Amino acid sequence: MRIKLDQNISQYLRDDLTALNHDIDTVFDEGLSGADDPAVLKAATAEDRILFTLDTDFFDLKKYPPKSHRGVIVFRPPRQGALAAAKFIKAFVLSTDLEKYVGQTTVVERTRARILNRS
Prior knowledge:
- This protein has helices spanning 13-19, 37-46, 82-95; strands at residues 2-5, 23-26, 50-53, 72-75, 105-108, 113-115.
- It is of the alpha/beta class.
- 28% of the residues are buried.
C-alpha cells in the first residue's frame, strides 16, 4: 500500500512499514512540514497514497469527503508519545487489510476501526 505519514507521526515508523512491504512517504520528505491540512491531503491524493495522521480535523467530512481522496486513517492511540503511537499504528497495520479503507475516512481506536462514512 502507498502511504503518506503526516508530520504528527514519528518518521521512525517509516522503516517498520517499509519492512512490511508498504511504499512510505512523509510530509517531511516533500517539504510540507507545517503545511495546512488541505495541502497535505492534496499531495497524498496526487500520489495515490493513504494518509496516516493523528489530526482529528480530517473528521470534517464536508471539507474532506470520502472518495475525494485515496483514504485518511486517523489514529487515536490510547497512550501519548511518539513511540506509543508508532507501536499502535504498526500493530494496526499488521492486523488488517488496508485495502478496505481505500477512499474512506477511518478512525482507529484501541478496540476498533470505524469508517466514518461509506459514501
